[in-house]
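sorry to bug you again but im stuck and you know this stuff better than me. what follows is a protein written twice so to speak, once as letters and once as C-alpha cells for the fold. mainly i need to know what kind of three dimensional shape the backbone takes. anything you notice is useful, everything is just below:
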Amino acid sequence: MNTKKLLQALEEAFQQQQYGTSSSPIELYEPVKYLMALGGKRLRPLMTLMAASLFTDEWQKALKPALAVEFFHNFTLMHDDIMDKAPLRRGKPTVNAKWNDNIAILSGDAMLILAYELINTVEDAHLRQVLNRFNRTAMEVFEGQQLDMSFETAETVTEEQYIEMIRLKTSVLLGFALELGAIVGDADADTTQALYDFGICVGLGFQLKDDLLDVFGDPAKFGKQVGGDIISNKKTFMLIEALLKAEGETAQTLHHWLNATAFDPTEKVKAVTEIYEQLGIKEIATQKINYYFDKAFELLENLPIEQSRKEPLRSFVEILIDREV
C-alpha cells in the first residue's frame, strides 16, 4: 500500500474527528485540537495502517483504531510537558504554557478517553484482545515514564535498566501500533507477536539513535539543541557507557562535569563529547543501534507474508533509520 495514500487518509480522518458537542466547554477540547494540529510524523498510526495492509486490502477498518494510538501518544506528551514544565512542543507553545497546567491535565485526560472511544470501533471478534493489549501497553508506558523520572535522582543506572526503561516508555507503543494493525487484519497469533517484536526492536533502535544524535547530530538537522542530554546529566546509554569505561583522569574529569553546579553549557558539552570520543562511545552506541535494527529486519524478513506486501514497511523504516532529525 502506498505510504503517501495512508498518510493522506490519516490526516483526513484527524480533520474529521469530532470533539465534544456544540454545548461542550471549549476550554476542554480546544487544547486537544491544538495539540493534534501540531502534527508530528504520525509514525505510530501510520504503522498501524501499514501492518493491517500486510494482511488485508481492507486497511480502512484499522483507520479509527490507528487514530486511537495517536491520541494516546499525544495524551502522554501533554502530561509529559506538564511534568517537565516544558515551554515548547514541536516548535510551538505547549498546552500548559499556552493555557495552564490544570487545563492541560484535564484535556489530556479527555484525549485518553477519546482514544478508548476510537479503540472501541474494533470489530467485536477482536475487541477484548485489543482492549487487553491497549491497557497493558498504557500501563507499561506509565511505568517507563516513572522509571525515567526515578533515574534522574538515582546514583547509578545500569545499561539493562536503561534499555528496559526505553522499551517501556517508547518501544511498547510502537510495538502495539503494529500489533493492533495485525489483529485488525486477522493475522494469526505467531505473526502478530513477531510484528510486535519487530516494533520493539525498531523503537529501541530509534531511541538509542536519538541519544547518539543528541551528542553527535548536526544542529541544523537535529531539530533541537545538540548536547541537551549532556547539559542536564540525563542518564542516557551514552553516559552510562562512559561511566563504565572511564578511568583515572578521564573519570575524574567526567565526574567533575557531572557534579558541577555552575558551568558554561557550551564548554560542558564540548568537554563531555571529547570524553565520549576518547572512549569510543559513538562506536559502541552505533553497534547497539545496528543490533536492534538488524534484529528488527530479520523478524520482518521471516514473516510468512509476500515480499511485495512487506516492502512498503521495510522501505519506510529504512528511511526513518537514515534520518538525522
Notes: The first strand starts at residue 88 and ends at 89. The chain has a mean pLDDT of 94.
